[in-house]
Design goal:
9 helices, alpha/beta, about 25% helix, Metallo-beta-lactamase, Chain A, globular, 7-stranded mixed β-sheet, single chain, 8-stranded mixed β-sheet
Length: about 260
């Protein structure tokens, strides 16, 4: 299984509009971060986790031309804003795109993109054609690939991370629930929220992410949803062994099953 980081940045992206900080002026490509999303591929199956605000650019940049499913972590705009661009996959495949999401996420998605879910409004303009599949805490399968929700806390909000084989993706969280830790047992590779050093009410600081990574015990951890406060070169050199900053274009090879 091949996992590609399509975006490793926070909700405003990096560089941030109007900012002249060292990270935003950096020439290091690892300091240019699109909004958070990953692509998970096996020989037969292609899955996106979150259609970020930069979804179109990510698809063009990384040559994504087919999708077997989209999994949503939660309904915040930087994770759903690219939803309309799923139309392109309808044009190519002539089929609907299955989307897997919690009830609350679906409620907000169908409100924000009402024209895609209201039969009357669909007749007035081109809209994504999707097949919503509501998920809770149970594992589900996309093209033979088993996906297990990881319950997380994002401030007061319940959000999902996902375990797929030997890999887990846990963006946008400040706490992993007890059940979440249980479902992460034996994980080899994980991408974990690590916003910045300064505290934030709904995200892990880098220090907290390091402590959490040690508790999880994966072979390798990468931090994502990174703010412009963090300059890759300077922070990377001080991170413990087995913990690194993710960056756009990072590729991780992992087992597609737990066995």
């Amino acid at each position: 299984m091949r996992v590609t980081v399509l975006g490793s940045g926070t909700s405003s992206g990096v560089p941030t509009i109007g900012c002249e900080c060292e990270t935003c002026r950096s020439s290091d490509p690892r300091d240019r971060r699109l909004r958070p999303s990953v692509l998970v591929e096996t020989n037969e199956t292609s899955i996106i986790i979150d259609t970020s605000s930069d979804f179109r650019e990510q698809c063009l940049r990384f040559g994504i031309d087919r999708l077997d499913g989209v999994i949503y972590t939660h309904h915040h705009f930087d994770h759903i804003a690219g939803f309309d661009d799923l139309r392109a996959f309808n044009f190519v495949s002539k089929n609907s795109v299955p989307i897997y999401l919690m009830n609350e996420t679906f409620a907000h998605l169908s409100r924000i993109f009402e024209y895609a879910f209201d039969p009357k409004k669909r007749k007035e303009s081109s809209a994504p054609v999707v097949k919503p599949i509501l998920i809770d805490d149970k594992s589900f399968s996309i093209g033979g690939v088993e996906c297990t929700p990881i319950p997380l806390r994002h401030g007061s909000m319940r959000v999902n991370g996902y375990r797929i084989g030997g890999f887990a993706y846990c963006t946008d969280c400040n706490e992993i629930t007890e059940e979440g830790y249980r479902r992460l047992e034996g994980i080899e590779y994980i991408i974990l929220d690590g916003l910045r050093y300064r505290p934030h009410p709904t995200h892990m600081t880098i220090e907290k992410a390091i402590d959490t990574a040690r508790k999880i015990g994966a072979k390798q951890t990468w931090l994502t949803h990174i703010a412009h406060d963090v300059q890759h070169r300077l922070v990377e050199k001080d991170l413990p062994h087995g913990i690194n900053l993710a960056y756009d274009g990072l590729v991780i090879n992992a087992r597609s099953s737990r066995e």
